[in-house]
């Protein structure tokens, strides 16, 4: 499998991201690379309602978020705007600060990240619609506009290879808790650094399910390596995965059910700098049709094109938008 330079990491270390955000805020994100695609309106962007606007799009540095950022830029281009591409920023906080400060105009973020990481709430809202509304209403006070979310839910999960699961027959996280109690040495788990310390990650999961995984059985590594280790080696029985990742199917993994509904909903939503939205409220009309089409299954397919097939996120985004008729070429 050929890997691209676009590392599929969902949430880089927040401290590192914050430091970078401060640096980028100081120098300004408006120096992004121009998006020069020759695209035209399709089912969105008719009449070029953004003609004369110059907008900066940003994203975090994992494949799905980069693809979504590229989609936004391409739709803005088709609607007549000049677009600066500042996608692929490390960490959750760097892109977030760019939106708050007005150094970027638009990105996609996740309701669970907004509610827990940015707004500081310990407990998720179980109903996805109510969680979106809670994030939307509270974050407006920070100058951030959350547009209606996609069905796409990129939440955390644990996965096991079908080969290993033939032995253990795990279906739920409660099954993992039972195995950890019965045979602690059997439960080895590969996770990212951030997942190992987040309240909505491993510590919270262990508490919710009453499980204790010995420290020596927890291995920290990059997200991309986790999938390979779980699929092809015996170093990790279980691995942290994201439910929209195309490598789940490609690497023949079983995703375990979160039967106690611990992990928050991470529905992807367009996030807009407030002053930008007030100046160009048509942005909501441009992005809402995309959001409605972006399901978890669609995201898995698009992500696989990058993380499994090695395609460029920009081209993946453009091909999908054209195929769906949202924009035209030329």
Description:
With 330 residues, this protein is of the alpha/beta class. The protein is 42% helix and 16% strand. The protein contains 14 helices and 13 strands. The protein has helices spanning 14-27, 63-78, 92-101, 111-118, 128-139, 162-168, 173-182, 202-209, 223-232, 247-250, 274-279, 283-293, 296-307, 313-323; strands at 33-35, 39-41, 54-58, 82-86, 106-110, 144-146, 156-161, 189-191, 218-220, 238-242, 253-255, 268-273, 327-329. It has a five-stranded mixed sheet. Strand 8, helix 8 (202-209) and strand 9 form a beta-alpha-beta unit. Helix 2 crosses helix 14 (313-323) and helix 13 (296-307) packs across helix 14. The longest helix has 16 residues, at 63-78. The two termini are 33 Å apart.
- Please report the total strand number as a whole number: 13
Helical percentage: 40-55%
Question: What structural class should be given to the helix and strand makeup?
Answer: alpha/beta
Strand order of the largest sheet: 9-8-10-7-11
State the order of secondary-structure elements, H for helix, E for strand: HEEEHEHEHHEEHHEHEHEHEEHHHHE
- Rg over alpha carbons: 20 Å
The main β sheet shows up as:
5 strands, mixed
From the spread of the alpha carbons, the general shape counts as globular
Q: List the total number of helices.
A: 14
Low-confidence stretches: 1-30
CA distance, first residue to last residue: 33 Å
Q: State which percent range the strand residues make up.
A: 15-25%
What's the overall average pLDDT, rounded? 90
